[in-house]
């Protein structure tokens, strides 16, 4: 008697449906485990079109960096504040730890992280694929600093924008995977001190920063600078004393927030139609500053961030003493997270990607799942 074959693991579920409706939505770690189920799944999910679709469906989570003692390690931590996350600790799970001398964050884009590993050497890492390489021919100088990274839609390249300290110097562009040093570009723009990479927003093919009620816009297609005004009414609020006004994306719209002088309320604006450049005041959030200070410690306004929005719910991330607090639009604490190490909240986002980028293998010191990953 011939023994009956075991039933399929996905009985009654067509492979196409399982692959394009379920696997495509899984986080990278779960997705990689599912590849081992059968050859059909592994073959389909290694194709570039599938990996691009998988990346498109990953959430763009606010990024926090965990700074190790003596700056010899760095945790890459997406702040997962979505509904359904089990516990407060689950909101701060590291996806990768990087080790090395004087390791610290620089810029981020499309799931890729550019980090300083050493005093003046930059490396690029993909936390999801655990790939790392040094940027060949690229050593940070005293004259220029990286202020943004973006995909150049016309060429398909990833490029890094470097701003000068001296307004008489030229801007520079570095192409990932190139063996050439950064090239000079003849454009006018702000100096590096006015363009903090930690508050940078990549929005609608532009890089954007806000300072002194003016938003600086770098068009990543034309590769040129422009300006637009911050929302009317921000004179009632105090721009972030370190970085200036903070921009963010909310429901595919450009948003901005700032604190008032007493740090007791936050104003939030949104631009419903980006082409019209018209701002609308959306929220005034009252902060129970005295109550939170007594319970958690002194407020640190330079760490105030608006992480993101799901289904119209905007949430804020603020730092009081050794605590990171997630607040809703009523000023109520949604989650309180005790810092076990130095945490650096930024406006960076991590949208994890398993897409294999060809530039990695062209770079110096390319490794997979090896040092500097810990």
From TrEMBL:
SMART domains listed in its UniProt record: FBOX (SM00256)
Record Gene3D superfamilies: 1.20.1280.50
Domain of life: Eukaryota
Record InterPro entries: F-box-assoc_interact_dom, F-box-like_dom_sf, F-box_dom, SCF_F-box_component
Transmembrane segments: none
Sequence ranges assigned to domain F-box in this UniProt record: 13-54
Protein known as: F-box domain-containing protein
């Amino acid at each position: 008697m011939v023994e009956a074959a075991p039933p399929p693991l996905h009985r009654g579920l067509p492979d196409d449906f399982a692959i394009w409706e379920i696997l495509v939505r899984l986080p990278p770690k779960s997705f990689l485990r599912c590849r081992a189920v059968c050859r059909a799944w592994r073959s389909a999910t290694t194709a570039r079109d599938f990996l691009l679709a998988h990346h498109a469906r990953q959430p763009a989570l606010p990024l926090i960096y965990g700074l190790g003692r003596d700056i010899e390690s760095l945790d890459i931590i997406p702040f997962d504040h979505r509904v359904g996350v089990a516990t407060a600790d689950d909101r701060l799970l590291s996806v990768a730890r990087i080790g090395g001398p004087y390791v610290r964050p620089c810029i981020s884009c499309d799931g890729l992280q550019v980090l300083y590993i050493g005093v003046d050497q930059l490396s690029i890492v993909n936390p999801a694929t655990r790939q790392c390489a040094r940027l060949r021919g690229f050593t940070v100088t005293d004259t220029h600093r990286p202020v943004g990274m973006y995909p150049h839609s016309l060429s398909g390249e990833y490029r890094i924008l470097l701003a000068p300290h001296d307004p008489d110097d030229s801007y520079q562009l570095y192409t990932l995977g190139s063996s050439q040093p950064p090239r000079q570009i003849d454009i006018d723009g702000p100096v590096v001190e006015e363009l903090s990479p930690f508050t940078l927003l990549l929005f609608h093919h532009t890089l954007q920063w806000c300072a002194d009620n003016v938003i600086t816009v770098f068009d990543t297609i034309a590769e040129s600078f422009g300006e637009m005004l911050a929302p009317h009414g921000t004179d009632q609020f105090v721009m972030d004393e370190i970085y200036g006004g903070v921009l963010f994306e909310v429901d595919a719209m450009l948003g901005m927030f700032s604190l008032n002088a007493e740090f007791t309320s936050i104003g939030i604006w949104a631009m419903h139609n980006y082409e019209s450049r018209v701002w609308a005041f959306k929220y005034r959030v009252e902060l129970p500053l005295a109550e939170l200070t007594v319970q958690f410690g002194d407020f640190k306004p330079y760490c105030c961030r608006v992480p993101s929005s799901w289904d119209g719910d905007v949430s804020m991330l603020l730092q009081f003493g050794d605590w990171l607090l997630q607040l809703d639009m009523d000023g109520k604490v949604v989650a309180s997270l005790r810092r076990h190490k130095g945490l650096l909240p930024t406006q960076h986002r991590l949208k994890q990607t398993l897409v294999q980028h060809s530039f990695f293998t062209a770079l110096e010191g390319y490794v997979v799942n090896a040092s500097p990953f810990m």
